[in-house]
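Standup notes
- DV: blocked on the single-chain target, sequence here:
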Amino acid sequence: MEQTAFRSRACTYDEVAGGVRRMAAALRASNVYEGDRVVLWSENSAQWAMMFYACVLLRIVVVPMDPSFSAAFVERIRVLTGARRVFTGADLAAARAEQHPAKLVTPAPAPESALLEIIYTSEPPATPRA
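- DV (later): unblocked, structure below
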């Protein structure tokens, strides 16, 4: 279910699976591969979930960021984590809309010790200027 300010929209399993394949193809087209890190800086949505699962499928490490975080903080985290790319809501919508090949070759299952996600729970408060 995708909720917006004015309506709700249910996604079918086929829509989700197709979205995950398109997101995975968009990741590959962006030269993001297994072991790389990407920042997801967007509101919760079906597109966000599709990109998350595309990353899991391709063994790409996800760094989810709250959409209220500042651009400066997100950039700092991108540098700290070595993320190859930052995906915003607009990027997710564009990736979902693109038409990529439906066939997707996935890597072998990840070892149990593989890193899946790096989570930052809050942005430090701004320091007051004297």
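- Follow-up: The chain is about 40% helix and 15% strand.
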